[in-house]
Design a protein that fits this description.
Layout: H1 3-31, E1 39-44, E2 59-64, H2 106-110, E3 116-123, H3 125-130, E4 138-146, E5 152-166, E6 188-195, H4 197-209, E7 211-216, E8 230-231, E9 250-265, E10 268-282
Antiparallel strand pairs: 1-2, 3-6, 4-5, 4-7, 5-6, 5-8, 9-10
Length: 284
Amino acid sequence: MSSRAIILSVIALFCGFVASVSVVRYVRGRNAPRPADGVPVVVAAKPLQTGTVLASSMVKVVRMPKEIAPPGAFRDPKEVVGHVLVVPLGVHEPVVHSAVGGTEGVIQAMVTAGMRAYSVQLEGEAARLASHLRVGDRVDVLWIRPSAEGEVTAKLLMQNVRVLAVGDPENKSRESTKRSYSRGTADSEVVTLEVTPEQFVLLAAAVEEGKIKLAMRRPGEKGVTDIPEVDISRLWQAPEPAEAPQMSPTVAATPVEEYVIEIIEGDNIEHQTYERVAPDYRAR
């Protein structure tokens, strides 16, 4: 092969290589992802519970077509940091204005419209039970009232009451990602309940007159039971003596007359005297 032919072959190979590279780049350019269209929306990066103080690590931004972006959704994560969730959110669920409360007053942001928040101080075993409670749990409220005469009365005061907080959520550090409540001691705990205005008056009076204990409910159980007030002091009373049984009347024999029977055996004659009696009914 001549030098000219070799040179032309090299040039042809080079041109083919350049063309192949150009085609590959063109195809890759067409398949490359384009910048996402739509508007930014702040969503939950993980499941979040009611009462959570939002941190930047708990949310992220996704882009949605403007026509399907939820109204009231936040666009910038900085707008939600430090706010309190008043409803639970699932993963990738948008954070909207109605889902968060203000940065001041955690409890206030969690109270349902028309309801009230009231905190009760629990002691002893009641406080230890509170360590198992979480925000959103439902409880029954028991009232135990001692009297000056030593009698103790127990009454199921309220049922299906929502727990707003255990401990003091106002002491939570908004800069911490752990977000743990400030808990009480093992023998003392504060539980904040959501009650109606009427229940608030009743509960406040009950706290002044006796002790409050809480009973946990199974998740999702909302039924109520009509349980009467119980006088606990009667549990230690001795049973009342049973009344003596009524005895049936007895019969007393009273002699009324005598009679003689003559017994003859051959030449032998024998006389026996008997008494005829009549019944006399006398109560024992």
